Write a sequence for this structure.
């Protein structure tokens, strides 16, 4: 197996990723941000998108938090080049850097978001510490990623309709963590102020009005109800980790 990070290196891969992520990851990313929007009390002024890739979260972050200044950080320059071409304006900056050691003097953030990147980080314990260190006093970090400990039934259901990308997703799941492993990493990072949700979105969004709004929005991502069902199964394959600042009340 290639190293999972090898998918994001070249210009062709970065352009290809931009296409792939739209149909395949767009709905999950959208649902994750809806979840975050519910958890964040006040509107964040500074947001960090860690492992931002081609900047796919930017339009949704803008919609949810129009006042915020967004910083995207990624380790791969080719991914950032696509992001800069698509989104850069005065309220957004993209910086090359690692989750392990944030770019120099990057400052504090009210919301640190990371979607589908954590499993790729070389030293996750250091990264978790770095994240907590860069949270403002009322800040919140949210990491959403694939989990390894999903039943083979859910996995095969979710991958049934995605034959084009099946082996890619299988490889990425193989490199992901179980919830126990994530908790172990947090323990090693000495982080106790955290919360993990491991339920599918159908359970996390119980509120009727919210479900309606979300279903309408999700319909924009796909036209085929079979594909939508497959994607909803895919959404069950994530965990949601919220990290609070140290000594959070
Ligand atoms: C699957 S992509 C997700 C991109 C984006 N978050 C999205 O939602 O489309 C994973 C990204 O994480 C980046 N990445 C991997 N390791 C990283 C690290 N240590 N620090 C920052 N970014 C990293 C990769 O370069 C890649 O762009």
């Amino acid at each position: 197996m290639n190293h999972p990070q090898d998918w994001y290196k070249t210009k062709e891969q970065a352009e290809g990723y931009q296409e792939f992520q739209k149909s395949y990851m767009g709905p999950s990313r959208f649902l994750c941000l809806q979840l975050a929007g519910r958890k964040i009390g006040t509107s964040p002024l500074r947001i960090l998108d860690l492992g931002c890739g081609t900047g796919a979260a930017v339009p949704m972050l803008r919609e949810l938090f129009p006042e915020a200044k967004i910083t995207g950080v990624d380790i791969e320059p080719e991914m950032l080049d696509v992001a800069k071409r698509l989104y850069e304006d005065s309220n957004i900056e993209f910086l090359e850097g690692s989750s392990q050691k944030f770019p120099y003097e990057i400052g504090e953030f009210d919301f640190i978001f990371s979607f589908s990147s954590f499993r790729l980080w070389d030293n996750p314990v250091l990264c978790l510490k770095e994240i907590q260190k860069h949270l403002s006093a009322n800040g919140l970090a949210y990491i959403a990623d694939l989990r390894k400990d999903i039943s083979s039934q859910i996995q095969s259901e979710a991958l049934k309709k995605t034959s084009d990308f099946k082996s890619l997703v299988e490889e990425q799941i193989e490199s992901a963590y179980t919830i126990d492993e994530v908790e172990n990493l947090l323990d090693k990072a000495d982080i106790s102020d955290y919360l993990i949700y491991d339920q599918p979105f159908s359970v996390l969004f119980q509120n009727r009005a919210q479900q309606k709004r979300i279903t309408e929005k999700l319909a924009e991502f796909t036209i085929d109800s079979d594909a939508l069902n497959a994607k909803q199964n895919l959404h069950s394959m994530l965990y949601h980790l919220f990290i609070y600042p140290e000594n959070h009340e």
Summary: Residues 5, 8, 21, 25, 29, 51-53, 56-57, 73-76, 79, 98-100, 115-117, 120-121 surround S-adenosylmethionine (CB under 6 Å). Residues 4-243 form a domain with the Rossmann fold fold (CATH 3.40.50.150).
